[in-house]
Amino acid sequence: MRKLCLCLFSLLLTISLFPLLLKAKDDDFVRQPPRRVIFTHHDRSDSDPQQVHISLVGKDHMKVSWVTDSKHCSSLVEYGKESGKYNAKANGEHTSYKYFFYTSGKIHHVTIGPLEPSTTYFYRCGGSGPEFSFKTPPSTLPLDFVVVGDLGQTEWTNSTLDHIQSIDYDVLILPGDLSYADTHQPLWDSFGRIVEPYASRRPWMVTEGNHEVEIFPIIYPTGFKAYNARWPMPYQESGSTSNLYYSFEVAGTHVIMLGSYVEFDADSDQYKWLQADLAKIDRKKTPWVVALLHAPWYNTNTAHQGEGETMRLAMEELLYNAQVDLVFQGHVHAYERFTRVYNNKADPCGPIYITIGDGGNREGLALSFEDPASPLSLYREPSFGHGRLKMVNETHAFWGWHRNNDSNFVVKDQVWLQSLSSSKTCSKSVDQKITSPSTKDEL
Ligand SMILES: [Fe+2]
Question: Purple acid phosphatase N-terminal domain location, by residue (predicted)?
């Protein structure tokens, strides 16, 4: 009898574990817990540049940003196409800020150019210190974006950054949550140091998340003090009056950076700016339009449910009518890709929504998704990783999500996309509201 019971127990155990065993055979990836925060120390002299990063300005300029502990360093960048030979130079501006008992170093911002496309430049900041180099993006398609959100500064962040650097790209775009300093200002400096080897080589274009806000009632009521001082983006060039929302164009792509934590209703400056910006897009010049924002408009993870809903209700129609191709979202620490959506329904002329808040922050992964899955959600997985968007030509792009498998990465989700500007179904005037699309487009 006892033997029979044991046999029955073994049989039941095998049956119940069978799906798991199959999964193990199919994919032996073991999801790992959050990893520790890395505080990157300053090991250069007070006058040497640290936290160097670059960002695009207009069609052929680059902003070089860095910090010095010394207040006596000049905001000067020398640059040229040969290592050690700097035949051009530019001066810029500097700032610093206080946050309670913390005083930042001298934060320098210098715009250099005009620069040639697809060209490597060598540069030096402040007239001394180490040499850096960057490559400018191409002026025409193809173009390679890296997309990473909620980056933080942990061992997972390092893993993600190593994977990003292992394959070349042109521009990194980030939908919010950079340092996770959360008012502890030295962590902004540490973040600048951890990303410098990457952000000094390729332009990093960012928008803000909730971890950039850093509001303190009465004393710092408007927030974004560190973010605006350290990561100024080219907002004036797109007619914006705020560093918290802007757009830029690079090689056939119009990129819109929205602010989830500034006013967005129809009376707001951001809304009016977005309307004007969308109206200016020339799809012959930029056949692709991509938007980034932090709190997701579409999300089937149980984390942060509904947090982007008010903004979606306010602004989704604008993006839909302008035939925005893709919307990247952060905030949720997982990966999720939706089909083309408008107003909570599949729509061949709506944007594809992708959540990519899985860069490697200290808070860990958002492990729980709603069950059953919405038919709008095509792929979802709570793992750290990054995305790559290759704009191949005017009509087609290739998207891939790269999951961190510890020291390696694997491409777990990939899809070809067709630009809405080349879609026969959707090739109507952007002013003309599309009410009932009849045929199904490819993604
Ligand atoms: Fe967030």
Answer: 49-136
Cα–ligand 1 centroid distance for 312 (angstroms): 16
Using one digit for the tens of pLDDT, what is the confidence trace for 294-310? 999 999 999 999 999 99
Q: Which homologous superfamily does the CATH classification assign to the domain defined by 143-422?
A: Metallo-dependent phosphatases (3.60.21.10)
339 C-alpha to ligand 1 centroid (Å):
23
Relative to beta strand 93-95, strand 98-99 is: unpaired
Q: Do domains 50-135 and 143-422 have the same CATH topology?
A: no
Residue 330 CA to ligand 1 centre (angstroms): 6
Query: How many whole angstroms separate alpha carbon 135 and alpha carbon 118?
Result: 6
Q: What's the pLDDT tens digit per position in 392-422?
A: 999 999 999 999 886 788 899 999 999 999 9
CA of 259 to the centre of ligand 1 (A): 12
How far are the Cα atoms of 44, 374, 414, 429 from residue 347, in angstroms, in the given order?
A: 54, 14, 20, 17
Rounded CA separation 7/119 (Å): 70
Distance 333 CA to ligand 1 centre (A): 8
CATH code: domain 50-135 is: 2.60.40.380
Domain ranges of the chain: 50-135, 143-422
**Residue 254: active-site member:** no
DSSP state string for 233-285 = ---GGGT-S-TTSEEEEETTEEEEE--TTS--STTSHHHHHHHHHHHH--TTT
Q: Which two tokens stand for residue 440?
A: 């199904």
Q: pTM of whole model > 0.85?
A: yes
Catalytic residue among 109, 163, 304, 333: 304
Dump pLDDT digits (tens) for 6-63: 444 444 433 333 333 333 333 566 667 788 888 888 888 999 999 999 999 999 999 9
